[in-house]
Amino acid sequence: GAGTAALACRDVEVAYGAFKAISGVSCDFMPGRLYSLIGPNGAGKTTLMNALSGRARLSRGRVALGGRDITALPPHARTRAGLGRSFQITQIFPGMTVLENLRLAAQAHRYRLQPFWRGVGGFRGIALEAERVLEDIGMGSLGHVDAANLSHGDQRALEVGLALLSDPKVLLLDEPLAGVGHGDAARAVDLIRRAARGRTVLLIEHNMDVVMDISDEVVVMLGGQILAAGPPATIREDARVRSAYLGDG
Ligand code: ATP
């Protein structure tokens, strides 16, 4: 067999009143692979990500993490189960340094895992974890900088770092490059690659060069449904995708 998907959804529907933002969405995200979710504005990409992370209520369908049905779990329980997510909206505390932000997130995650943890021998562990992630996101020299004073690119990198502190098996990244300048794009791609090492990643990204370069698989959405899915080379040549989305006529 093909093995168990790291994350899967079956016949998922999210409705806002009579309007179905997504419907009939089924997808398998296989372990260790990087998936990009693309499609025009309003196609339902963020809604699908919200459905997977537990932020949107399903009106129909199921979601499974590593073969375990998580449809009924709230977002924090999904995080605890190994499903991490970075946000478009910043979760960084200004007035605290980069390292303090990472330590706080590491501590919050420990507490989620082990509510009765008393910190016995643990603070050193937290400091080490924060420093490991600081290196992972290429910000080793910025640990003591106030997060409020970071460049936009560094803020986006720190957001990814905050998501990495829970060491998720599956990581959902919603436009981690949004607002990042052209010069910073290469660095952002490098960051996503590093974040993806050893885990399954689902990425929403509008930059097609980045998507085609970085993805193992591309999932194309249109009108709340999956139009096509496959490796970048296949998607690039798909006639339906080209006429519906890539702007070829
Ligand atoms: P974008 O690329 O612009 O972020 P998207 O593909 O992520 O678009 P969604 O944000 O998932 O698309 O939106 C899908 C559809 O659902 C849109 O028509 C949107 O207006 C609608 N929608 C999303 N959230 C809500 C909500 N809370 N209430 C009502 N309609 C919503």
Structural summary, described in words:
With 249 residues, this protein is α/β, with parallel strands linked by helices. The chain is 38% helix and 24% strand. It has nine helices and ten strands. It has helices at 45-53, 75-80, 98-113, 122-136, 152-164, 182-196, 208-214, 232-237, 239-246; strands at 7-16, 19-29, 34-38, 60-65, 68-69, 83-86, 170-174, 200-204, 217-222, 225-230. The chain has a six-stranded mixed sheet, with helices on both faces. Bound molecules: adenosine-5'-triphosphate (ATP).
Percent helix, as a range, is 25-40%
Strand order of the largest sheet: 6-7-8-3-9-10
Apparent shape: globular
Please summarize the sheet with the most strands: 6 strands, mixed
| Alpha-carbon distance between the two ends | 39 Å
Strand content: 15-25%
Low-confidence parts: none
Number of strands: 10
Structural class: alpha/beta
Radius of gyration: 18 Å
Number of helices: 9
Hetero groups bound?
adenosine-5'-triphosphate
> What is the averaged pLDDT score?
88
Domain ABC transporter: 7-248
Protein name: ABC transporter ATP-binding protein
Keywords: ATP-binding, Nucleotide-binding, Transport
GO molecular function, one term: ATP binding
Give the topology.
Layout: E1 7-16, E2 19-29, E3 34-38, H1 45-53, E4 60-65, E5 68-69, H2 75-80, E6 83-86, H3 98-113, H4 122-136, H5 152-164, E7 170-174, H6 182-196, E8 200-204, H7 208-214, E9 217-222, E10 225-230, H8 232-237, H9 239-246
Parallel strand pairs: 3-8, 3-9, 6-7, 7-8
Antiparallel strand pairs: 1-2, 1-4, 4-5, 9-10
Helix pairs in contact: 3-4, 5-6
Bound molecules: adenosine-5'-triphosphate.
Adenosine-5'-triphosphate (ATP) binds at residues 16, 21, 39, 41-47.
Keywords: ATP-binding, Nucleotide-binding, Transport
GO molecular function: ATP binding
InterPro entries: AAA+_ATPase, ABC_AA/LPS_Transport, ABC_transporter-like_ATP-bd, ABC_transporter-like_CS, BCA_ABC_TP_C, P-loop_NTPase
